[in-house]
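Notebook p. 47: complex prediction with adenosine monophosphate.
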Amino acid sequence: MSIKVQSVRGMNDLLPSETHWWQAMERAIHHVAAIYGYEEIRLPLLERTELFKRSIGEETDIVEKEMYTFLDNRGDSLTLRPEATASCVRACIQHGLINRSKARLWYMGPMFRYERPQKGRYRQFHQFGIEAFGWTTPDIDAEIILVAHALWQQLNIAEHAQLEINSIGTPEARQRFRADLVSYFGNYRDSLDQDSQRRLVTNPLRILDSKNPNMQEIIEEAPVMTDYLDSESAARFDRLCNLLASQDIGFTINHRLVRGLDYYTDTVFEWTTNLLGAQNAICGGGRYDGLVELLGGGPIPGAGFAMGLERLIEVLRQSNYDAELARPQVYVCTLGSDAEVEGLNLAQELRAEGIRTTVHCGGGKLSQQLKNADRASAVLGVIIGADEITSRTAIVKSLRTDAEQQSVVRSEIVETIQGMLHSKQ
Ligand code: AMP
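Predicted complex, structure tokens below:
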């Protein structure tokens, strides 16, 4: 027997038993993006390595140790995208999408990071993200947060999503903050864990992000970014808070929130959930005013977010979201060849009305067919046998309630079924 080939660790198949969750979530994403006026952009999975090094930052975890990078046949260094903001900016510059006009864009698809796989953390995972280019004002920061919130509402999980926001100011302000952090943490060098000692040199802001309980006391006393904000950044942050409050979006200000990517400026935010364990971040984003220029475009500001779809699916499961599943609303059982044709006709009429309909295939006894209907979790069963062909009727039966089955004349079946589905019979 030959050895079975397995999938790559941390890269998961999405099986039919879960894809209905994905489809429901994707429908909600399409809907929310459309009602907020965002347009879809589709980007390649592979980019030049340099794109991520320059944008995300050489000294970030992602670039230092998490990228899938390889040389192609010509010797060019390519990387499977670990996130899509950089690709999106690259595409916008390359195709002149944002030179003269503003743009609201969204994308969805797989990302790749060589992390240690665990629950909620995979090597291939999916993100939905939006990016808004061309606005310097905090109204757009509020808008992108509203888009995420609209999605939580659409998926019925708003009560499980908590928002934290912060301002990390301009690069100049951050430079001053960084210098003070280095000297503060430098005083505690021996008490810092290994990660933080490394970050003291490479990326001291990330020490504030440390989840290590032994580090919390030191972190608590560290300088706070808010004290370094210039008046413009402080006013912008105030305005954002006011706008969010005006729309009844609850949030907490977390002065320690810094995010792991270098390109952020001013606003940063993160949505977490109480329904997941350690990997509880479901969406992160912020403003990145210097990124377009850094990647060779004009001085065009940007803001956006990315959300992790595997984690979102897990939240949906935990919150018992009714994904309408893949389950049929109507299951059509037929007995005999004339009934089979009539069953097909009826199914096409129901489908034309948008009703999810499965026709029993493979024949067999009625009891067996009904058992299949039940197993498929259909709401209603329709039975057509020889008698029904003669009388031009069909039997309609609720599979979820004890209601009596009824014989309905053929011309009224679609309407009857619509009515029953509407009243959730
Ligand atoms: P980031 O691009 O790191 O800000 O991540 C944005 C979101 O993507 C996070 O809030 C997570 O929901 C999700 N995410 C990031 N890394 C992973 C991963 N390795 N596996 C699954 N989801 C992830």
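Notes: Residues 16-35 form the longest helix (20 residues). The first strand starts at residue 39 and ends at 40.
Next step: compare against the earlier run before touching the bench.
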